[in-house]
């Protein structure tokens, strides 16, 4: 991890945690504010990419839910989609907490695919 305070005056671990606080919004803020600290840029970019991926997946599930809801004979599938969407939302929340804790511990905790992209581009 790059040592020293950031241009914002924050500790890098705190900034890493804050990158995840509001998803892609705080990720974007820290990605453009911090040009030098690779640790913060990694967590900012991973936050952006993971947020967008989660939003897209949940949007697709909700779109399927709405499209199938009009067909009452597909009630089981509609219920299953809503259940899966709820589980994914809870899993995303748990993942976000883990990412915040790992960033605060000073770890480069990489998610599959987006973590590799963030590592290459931070």
Largest sheet: none
Order of helices and strands: HHHHH
**Please, what is the average pLDDT?**
89
| Number of separate domains | 1
What's the alpha carbon Rg, rounded to whole Å?
17 Å
Main structural class: mainly alpha
Which ranges are low-confidence, i.e. pLDDT below 50, for 5 or more consecutive residues?
none
Task: Give the helix tally.
Answer: 5
Helix content: over 70%
User: Shape from CA axes?
Assistant: elongated
The N- and C-terminal alpha carbons lie at a distance of 12 Å
Number of strands: 0
Binned strand content: under 5%
Task: Break the fold down into its secondary structure elements and pairings.
Elements: H1 12-18, H2 24-33, H3 38-69, H4 75-104, H5 114-121
Helix pairs in contact: 1-3, 1-4, 2-3, 3-4, 3-5
